[in-house]
Amino acid sequence: MRNFGVLPPWLVLNPLLHGWLLEDIGRGDRTTNTLLTEDVTPGTAKWIAKAPGIIAGLPVTARVFQILNENVSFTAVTLEGARCEPGQIVAEIHGSLDALLMGERVALNLAMRLSGIATLTNIYVEKIADLPARLVDTRKTTPGLRLLEKYATAVGGAINHRMGLDDAVMIKDNHIAAAGGIEEAVRRVRSQIPYPLTIEVETESLEQVKEALQHQADIIMLDNMPLDMMREAVELIRQQDSRVKIEASGNVTLETIRSVAETGVDYISSSAPITQSKWLDLSMRIF
Questions:
Q1: CB-based burial of residue 62 (10 Å sphere; 0-12 exposed, 13-18 middle, 19+ buried)?
Q2: Which residue among 62, 123, 173, 200 is least enclosed by CB atoms within 10 Å?
Q3: What 3-state class would DSSP assign to 171?
Q4: Which of the residues in the chain have pLDDT under 50?
Q5: Which of 210, 168, 209, 204 lies closest to 189 in space, CA to CA?
Q6: What is the pTM of this model?
Q7: Which residues are catalytic?
C-alpha cells in the first residue's frame, strides 16, 4: 500500500522553488539560451530510475518546470509513494526544451533527495510494521527544505512530529536546566500557552518520568534510556496515567528500532531517515 503525505499550498512552496531556480539559472542559462534560438522548441524527456526505492516529490518537481513554462506537461508514470526499480520510467515531460533543460537540475535534485528520504523511512517503518509503535521524524532537517523533507518521511510511512517550535511544547534537558527543574518548566509553560497545545517532557531517568507524571505532561519522551529502564518507564506511565503518550528517542537505528518498539512505546522519533538517507539516483533523457 502506498503512503501519502500532504504538501503545503503553492502559496508557500512557490517562493522556495523560485529561489532555487534563481540560484541555478542566475543571469541566464548560457548553454541553453545559446543553443535554442527560437522562443519555443518543443521536446520530450523521460526520467529513469537508476536504483530501487520509493518515489517522492513528483508534484513539486512538476511545478518546477511549470514555473519556467506553464504549458509543460509532467506525467507521473511511477506514482508518488510507489516503489521503482532500476531502468523503470518514473515520469514523462513534454514542453518547451528551454524549460526542460533549465529546470532539469533543480527538479532532479529535489526528486532524488526526497525519494532517498522516503526510501530509508520506509525501511525503518517496515521494521516495526506489525507493532503498535509508529515512527515519527524530527526537526533535524536541512534549512529551507524542512517542509519537503518532512513530506518525504510521510510518503515513506512515518508520522510528522512538530514542524517547528510553534507547533507544540517540548521541554528538553536544556529547558529543564534553564528553568531549574521539570516542575518549574511545566508550571511556567502551562500558564502561558494557548489551548490546545500539548506539553511534552524529555526524561532521562525514572525519577524524571515520575516528576513529569506528577505535573501532568501530555507526552513523555524516554531519551537514550537502556531498554530495561524504558520497559519499566512504560509500565509506570501506563499504570499511573493511561492518557499519556510515550515517545522513545535517541540513537535509534535499523538494528535497534524493533527492540525499542517492543517496549510498548507509542512513538519512536528518529532523525536517521532524513540525516542518513542517500539520494535515489534518477536521470533525465531527452528524446
A1: buried
A2: 173
A3: strand
A4: none
A5: 168
A6: 0.96
A7: 105, 140, 172, 202, 223
Residues of the chain by 3-state class (helix, strand, coil), percent to 5 = 45, 20, 40
What are φ and ψ of residue 222, in 5° steps? -100, 105
Residues 6+ apart with CB under 8 A from 55: 49, 76, 78, 79, 80, 81, 82, 83, 84, 90, 111, 115, 118, 280
Tell me the CB-side half-sphere exposure of residue 37, using CA atoms within 13 A.
0
Give me 182's grid cell: 521539570
Predicted local distance difference test score (pLDDT) of residue 170 = 98
- The dihedral region occupied by 107, where left means phi > 0, alpha psi between -120 and 50, and beta the remainder, is alpha
CA torsion angle 34 35 39 44 (round to 10): -140
pLDDT digit string, tens, across residues 106-121: 999 999 999 999 999 9
In terms of C-beta density within 10 A (0-12 exposed, 13-18 middle, 19 or more buried), how is residue 210 classed?
A: middle
